[in-house]
Amino acid sequence: METIRGKRLSLLIKEEDIKKRVKELGREVERDFATSKELIVVGLLKGAFIFMADLVREIKLPLKIDFLWVSSYGQSMESSGNIKIVKDIDVDIEGREVLLVDDILDTGLTLKEIYEFLRIRNPSKLKTCVLLDKKERRKVDFNADYVGFEVPNLFLVGYGLDWGELGRNLPGVYAVED
Ligand code: PRP
Ligand code: MG
């Protein structure tokens, strides 16, 4: 039984199921960006790093990767709704085809704001991909173009998601038990 800080974790999505779904997402992205000469995949740090690493290996197209380091939650379990750009991307995305990747879409505050932050730089195409979608928590009108799994409103860790920076390295997605 996995635990973090004495709290038990219950497995929600196992490693093999993530792997299978990530392959499918790769096929979807390939289909939609089939004519792309050079796709730019932008991941949101830190949460997206594992999903992004797996996803790009399933996209058999010429692509470049970059990361945008944003922070909204800090140590808290709730979104502060106050997104901070810790580090911007290095590439110029004007006229380029961009796929924005994150681990989870929760209130939607982060992705909606970052989508707009990139959109005003005039990419020719901008799509979003998240592994997890906690739909019932949405506070703003925003949905991702590609979603791995819809998940219930539980506090989740693993596969990039953390609880106070712990648990990102768990290969599956777990709910922290009360
Ligand atoms: C988490 C998660 C998403 C965001 C989703 O990031 O990785 O980026 O919150 O929440 P929202 O839809 O309510 O905005 P966090 O700010 O915790 O930082 P991290 O990626 O470094 O874990
Ligand atoms: Mg994040």
TrEMBL record:
Belongs to the purine/pyrimidine phosphoribosyltransferase family. Residues 16-162 form the Phosphoribosyltransferase domain. This is Hypoxanthine phosphoribosyltransferase. It comes from the Bacteria. CDD domains: PRTases_typeI. PANTHER family: HYPOXANTHINE PHOSPHORIBOSYLTRANSFERASE, HYPOXANTHINE-GUANINE PHOSPHORIBOSYLTRANSFERASE. SUPFAM superfamilies: PRTase-like. Its cofactor is Mg(2+). The keyword Nucleotide-binding applies. It holds the Pfam family Pribosyltran.
